[in-house]
Amino acid sequence: MYGASPEFHVKMVRFESGEHFPLILGRDGVPLREPVFFFEKDRHFAFNTLDGKARVVAMVHDFLQERGIDLRGRVRQGLVLKILEATSLKNRLRAIGPRTVLIRERQQQKTRATPKIPIVGGHEGSHRRRRAAQYLKWSSERIRDELGLPVAERESVKSELAKLKELLVDQAKSMAQPLLPALSMEQSFVLLDAIRPESPTNPFPSQQFRNFVLLLAFWETGLRKSEILGLEVGDLSPTGVPPTLKLVRRPNYKKDTRARPAALKTMPRTVPITPVLHACLAYYINEHRRKIEFTLRDQGDKAGVKRFKSHAFIFVGARGAPLSSSGVQKIFATLGMRIRELPAQFSPHALRRTWNDLFTELSAERLGPRETQIREHLMGWVRGSRQSAHYAMRTTQRQAAEVVQQMQRDWVARWKEMKECQRT
């Protein structure tokens, strides 16, 4: 029932310490008790990980509510879910959310593509099934221990949970995640030309210079969206020293009041940038960013001035708050919709893949065996990460296709040469 109205939803609360914690709320706004204890052990997880797990837990409770399943009553009898119920839950976990529906509708409007089945991809589906199995196991074992079940029922619950894991996780192998599209060289030129301030193809009526610097930073560095949004003014190296950006881990950062705080996903590090990007960032900070405060003062927006002065994040919205993740997505969605040469699913991750493609092509001969180590440092991956080969896969595939085409051309040339020799 992909169109069913959910009974439960997720609310991320923020403590005074800056820590975020997920609550599963019913329609009456009252939080469920069990998920609070479940997430207590996960409080150190990143915001997006907690949010993703909480949404799965909400979907599990929606399913139990919809089917009238009393999990406590089931466990008392040594049961958990029936086979058909587990299969139905597996299908339910594949349903896409309203935001994904909107993104797909926009893509279809641009590409005239055939509407896709309203389910998530194999990779996301696999994540959801594992998280659902983990929560049901934790919850069932907690109920089992609270009830003090005898040995026979305890063993029955253990057996039922093993069957549930097999149905939800083991038998449902994850499909290979398709490679997200990177930009070709021609598309990169189109993008850089379109985002120039005052360019006739620039689709932004305001904040043109901010968006130009933001996209230039994504294109040149290949950093993650959260890493760019987490940059503060002091993270840009001062003038007169080698231009760099410092990526700092700031867990539970009180000054980051965004609904989805920008967090460093992996390794803190310092990445070199070109003098051009450094100059653009410095000019934006010293000129355009400062003008936001003056504009808010002229408008008499005291709350906006307070918001602006409460943080030091480089990229700022028009009302003084740090630029949000959804604001960045809107910028990329606008480019994807308005610039015909760009892919409809244009995203910051597409520029991360573009960076890796360019790095692979330009560094193979110059860096030799150091290529992987340097890529791991710049991308923030741990030593020996498989991500390096994964991101280079698109270049490898293209080079393999070029080799095959060259082999075919050589074969045809030799065939023609042989025919000519036979004629003479």
Automatic annotation (TrEMBL):
The lineage of its organism: Bacteria, Pseudomonadati, Pseudomonadota, Alphaproteobacteria, Hyphomicrobiales. This is Integrase. It comes from Bradyrhizobium japonicum. The keyword Transmembrane helix does not apply. PROSITE patterns: TYR_RECOMBINASE. Belongs to the 'phage' integrase family. Keywords: DNA integration, DNA recombination, DNA-binding. The keyword ATP-binding does not apply. Gene3D superfamilies: Intergrase catalytic core (1.10.443.10). Residues 178-404 form the Tyr recombinase domain.
